[in-house]
Amino acid sequence: MIERRELLTVLCLGVVLGAAGWLRAQKREPKMPVVRVRVDMVQLDVAVRDKRGYYVTGLSPHNFEIYEDDIRQKIATFGVEDQAPRKLEDIKHWESKPQLVKPFSKKDTSRGLDGVDSADAASSIFVLFDTSNYMYRGFVFAQDAIAAFLRYLDHRDRVAFYSYSRDVSRVCLLTGDRSRVLQGVRTTVAGDQAALYDALLKTLRDAGMFSGRRAVVVFSNGPDDASMASPEDVRDLAQSEGIPIYMVCTQEAEDDTLSSAIFKRISIATGGQAYFAGHWKGQRKAFDSIRDDLAHLYTLSYYPKPNPNLGWRTITVKLVGQKLKKYHVRTRTGYRPPLVWANPLNRAASESGTPPLSSPGNE
Question: What is the model's pTM?
């Protein structure tokens, strides 16, 4: 009986000591939540221009090198200007014939690389119009500039038209019917305070639901004074989705130093451009420039090679060859890959904005 009690005492003491040791180990070496990234394909819209602003056309895939965090990537698909991207093995001719094209030059958009019909190369363009109380003076002129931009877009492009003040209004969803979009432009009215960044986030999320080449074109007349979202939220989402943002701004917007700096920063980071125009003629010219830019983009894609970086990944596109190095390349500066939590509790915590949870056996 005594021996049995001693044995039971030893077993209990072992359990207590073992549990204490396990707790000390957990404190010393807390198990971290396991996350993975899933990036199927990265698409880049690339503009190549010389120092005068002329577009460089006629380049082929072997004229480009793509680096992600200094890791050389293999180009998977390539599209020339108005042609839909194709796999490299499907491109018959690799000869490069660089040519300089003056901005606003007329061009035939009916055929692409190798003479293949490019009817399937439509872009999805989301126009976001400022209808806040900043717009009372130049409202009609802005409507005219946007309408002219829409009329002369490539006939294959699909267009969505949104307006915003405190809230965003999806006036016309993405469509190939240009008359419906133009009617939507004419029905907009000036309203409340401006929540530009909130509206941009919603527009980018809508645009992210579509594949192919996409762009967001914004007309803004002033600073944001009502958004919950930040400019960084907008920039990160646009970069991750691969959607360039073009900004057309009035003189009033440029006079606001902070807003103009933010607009420029967002445009550059996403591969777009920012324009500031003091009168309606300048606004029309800015929209003409955007339309011209969209017609001269190269589209490249790649499947990222293994990369331990779970955060921000820098993208660099270089031109190959001594003669081409003098030209300027414009595209998005990088992206943040989506995280896939191995533990559902960690995924839920991430989506709710709370710190990830750690639990025994979280692998």
Answer: 0.80
